[in-house]
Amino acid sequence: MPTVIALDVSLSMSRPVVLSDIPEEYQRRHLAVHGINTYLDYLSANYKLEFVSLVAFSYLYEQLSTFTRDYNVIRTALNKVEVFSKTCIETALNGIKHVISDEWSHTPCQVILITDGSLGIGVGSLKKSLETINMRQSVEEKFPLPFPFPCKLHIVCIGNPNDPDVRNALPYYQRLIDVGDQGGEIFTLDGAISFKSVEDTFNRLAEKYYNPFCGNLTCGNFSCAIQLFPKPELFIRHLDDGKVTYTVSDKLEILGFLDIKDIGSPPTVARHLVLPRSTKEKTDAKDKDGKNVKSEDDDDSQDDGKTPSFTVLLHGSLRVESMVAITKVCDDWYGMIYSWADSKKKSNLMLALFDPGQDSIPWTGSFDNLTSCKEYSSEDEEKKSSFPVKPLDKRSYAQSCVVWIKPSGLQSDIQKVLRHARKLPEKIHQFYKELNRTRRAALSFGFHILLDAMASMLERECTLLPGTAHPNAALQLTHAANFLRSDNAFDVMQSVTPLPTNFSSGNTG
């Protein structure tokens, strides 16, 4: 989940800050840079796979760093930040929209907008932007929120919470998050403005939204501590009588294995990297002189790469055997673990989450019904795949449907009915099948005049029958024409049935 840090570099961020414990003079932007460095330190220690980009904005915006996992690049760019004119948050949001769309398209992301409580002045102010949000006509003038991709918007206010400007700005910031409609939060300082309060604020943000997901992966007697990246989000399913929330459990259980050719490419709601996690805590022990010394746990943690890991065994097995591991992530929610290669030399262990439910993959059937093929098949049948599983109900796309987009489609169906009519009584069942099919389509489309037209055509066919025609043919054509002109013809639940006769040839009675 990539993150964009949007730093306000307007003149208001250059206001000096009086710090009681530090004699040097600092500006608000210096405290903001310190907070960003605190956030980057947290990512380096706990969430090092996160892609981060830095955008500076005032009345215009500039991307100072593209998306990177090398956080030193971000730190270097922060040292080169210059001060510009007034604050324009709408400009920043437009810039963020373009930056993310160009590189990540529809990938879920997060934005951390850092400002000082200044709404700006004039036309580009946040107050003016929100007041005119519903008055804009052209696409170019449209307000950038909500973003065309999933995005959480967090706003960090570098200002004294008791400052009137900050208190006045908070409702506008909250409305900005509400307009985004993707979640997010406003973070204000706890207490007076200082390096410590800014540091605590960024730590609070990082611990809440960038806390790594840690759990255990089990398969029979095997167990391994893992980390999922990015952190799985809540899945909310809206129903007629409310909503159901699904949360990935910290215990992932592998239920069995399937061939890749059987599972195919099923629909998924999220994908996560599966990484092994060290179970040993890293602690620093200090001697009496205050110097850091290595503890025994540090020595053990350096040997993690030499310790056998179930994830390594699983990864290699899935890649060699071309299989996936069906995994239960919580009650009534499943996924699959598989080997995914982003290059010829590098591959990763991935967890793809299906849509919650037992029947999220139609061609495998219910997950509760999956079992070992050896339990019910002989050795000769083991090579045959049990998939796809045929559904009990007949799918609409498995049936031939009537398409009358062009006149030729309607003409073709009418000619088919007439061809069977001319071969009565031998084709009596085919005749009534096509007649009912065309009649139901006409009723579905509201094409009621077609019924009378078909009745006229059948009557005409009856008069054109040769003298050698079977008597039952004329009776069936007359019967069908009379039904099409009756009131029952408009009841879609009824069908035209053959007329029972006493003739030996074509007898349906």
From TrEMBL:
<dbReference type="InterPro" id="IPR045814">
    <property type="entry name" value="IntS14_b-barrel"/>
</dbReference>
<feature type="domain" description="VWFA">
    <location>
        <begin position="3"/>
        <end position="117"/>
    </location>
</feature>
<comment type="similarity">
    <text>Belongs to the Integrator subunit 14 family.</text>
</comment>
<dbReference type="GO" id="GO:0032039">
    <property type="term" value="C:integrator complex"/>
</dbReference>
<feature type="region of interest" description="Disordered">
    <location>
        <begin position="274"/>
        <end position="306"/>
    </location>
</feature>
<protein>
    <recommendedName>
        <fullName>Integrator complex subunit 14</fullName>
    </recommendedName>
</protein>
<dbReference type="InterPro" id="IPR046471">
    <property type="entry name" value="IntS14_C"/>
</dbReference>
<keyword id="KW-0539">Nucleus</keyword>
<dbReference type="InterPro" id="IPR039841">
    <property type="entry name" value="INTS14"/>
</dbReference>
<dbReference type="Pfam" id="PF19435">
    <property type="entry name" value="IntS14_b-barrel"/>
</dbReference>
<dbReference type="InterPro" id="IPR036465">
    <property type="entry name" value="vWFA_dom_sf"/>
</dbReference>
<dbReference type="Pfam" id="PF20504">
    <property type="entry name" value="IntS14_C"/>
</dbReference>
<feature type="domain" description="Integrator complex subunit 14 beta-barrel">
    <location>
        <begin position="210"/>
        <end position="357"/>
    </location>
</feature>
<feature type="domain" description="Integrator complex subunit 14 C-terminal">
    <location>
        <begin position="402"/>
        <end position="504"/>
    </location>
</feature>
<dbReference type="GO" id="GO:0034472">
    <property type="term" value="P:snRNA 3'-end processing"/>
</dbReference>
<dbReference type="Pfam" id="PF13519">
    <property type="entry name" value="VWA_2"/>
</dbReference>
<feature type="compositionally biased region" description="Basic and acidic residues">
    <location>
        <begin position="278"/>
        <end position="295"/>
    </location>
</feature>
<dbReference type="InterPro" id="IPR002035">
    <property type="entry name" value="VWF_A"/>
</dbReference>
